[in-house]
Amino acid sequence: MGLSAAAADAHIARWTEALRQPIYAHRVHWPSLLFHHAPVQNAVGIIQSGAIRSRRQTEGQRPLDVAGAGVIDHRQRAHDFSRLYFRPRTPTQYHIEGIRRPVECQYGAAAHAPVLVMFALDARSILTIPTTRFSDINMQRDEARDGDTDDFFATIDFTRVYHEGSFGGDATIANHRAAEVLCSSPVLLADHLKWIVCRSEAERETLIHMAGQAGRALRPKIVTSDDGKVFEKRFAFVEKVYASPEGVSFNLSPRHDGAPLKVRVQIHDNQARLVFDQTYGQLRARSENGGGWISRVTLADGLHEVQIHIDDHLAYQNLLFVGEALF
């Protein structure tokens, strides 16, 4: 049946107004959107195929499977749907986002997205599709309920779904934050995409580069923005990268605990020859003056492919031009 247009409009209007508060003001952007997070490698596939597909349809095709094995296999009710969330920064995202050491991966090293990308889609157009269903809590929970009517939608506790801050002893909030929208697979980006959000300009460049022509076509919709605070940003990532005749400069966002990082910088010239390869074993995210770092090497004019790994995970990849642009 799907949500009626009247119910969808009422929901968006009610919660946009309710969340228009000085505290956690970023939530005002959430009610009109639905969210899907993906590791950058999987996000490339979504962009190139133009669709978000169900777990069942992408079996054996996902470059990374970041679902916790014990969690995702527990209940398969939602595996035939393209799964979206009413909000970003769900408990799942909290446990997988960012470059982590093995001991920091709660569900195993594979359940880990070093570079995470967020798809933000139009809520009204998806909620009102006749085949769309919605759940009151995380669908991997045995007690999760799902339905497709206005009456069922009215039972979802959006005070808990959109909750921010401490749980205050209410452990059910975590499950409500993961309430889902279950869509017939595939969900076409051409029909519903609003934005593809990246944590930094460097990660935006990486996504566009890796997605090729499809990424370049979507460049206006691939953005960096903190307006909706869709990322945790607790672990290190690359913020900015520049190339010049003197080398490659880069800025890093630090881990939440300030721990030093293993950073490897590789540069290939336009003939695919390796011209620089250095690993910094104990690098602080910020230099002594609080800024970035430079890998010094003389670079000839032309395109250079730059890769940066943090703690052995790919964190940046792009082609950078050195020299004077013609236009």
Q: How would you describe this structure to a colleague?
A:
Helices cover 23% and strands 30% of the residues. It is α+β, with helices and mostly antiparallel strands and 327 residues long. A four-stranded mixed beta sheet has the order 1-4-9-10. Strand 16 and strand 17 form a beta hairpin. Helix 2 (40-49) packs parallel to helix 10. It is elongated and about 65 Å long. It starts with a helix and ends in a 5-residue tail after the last strand. The mean pLDDT is 94.
Number of strands: 17
Q: What is the quaternary state of this protein?
A: single chain
Rg result: 21 Å
Main beta sheet = 4 strands, mixed
- Beginning-to-end CA distance, first to last residue: 54 Å
Shape call: elongated
- What percent strand? 25-35%
Q: Whole-number average pLDDT?
A: 94
* Strand adjacency order, main sheet: 1-4-9-10
Task: Report the total helices.
Answer: 10
Report the helical percentage: 10-25%
Poorly predicted runs: none
Secondary structure category: alpha+beta
Run of helices and strands: HEHEHEHEHEEHHHEEHEHEEEEEEEE
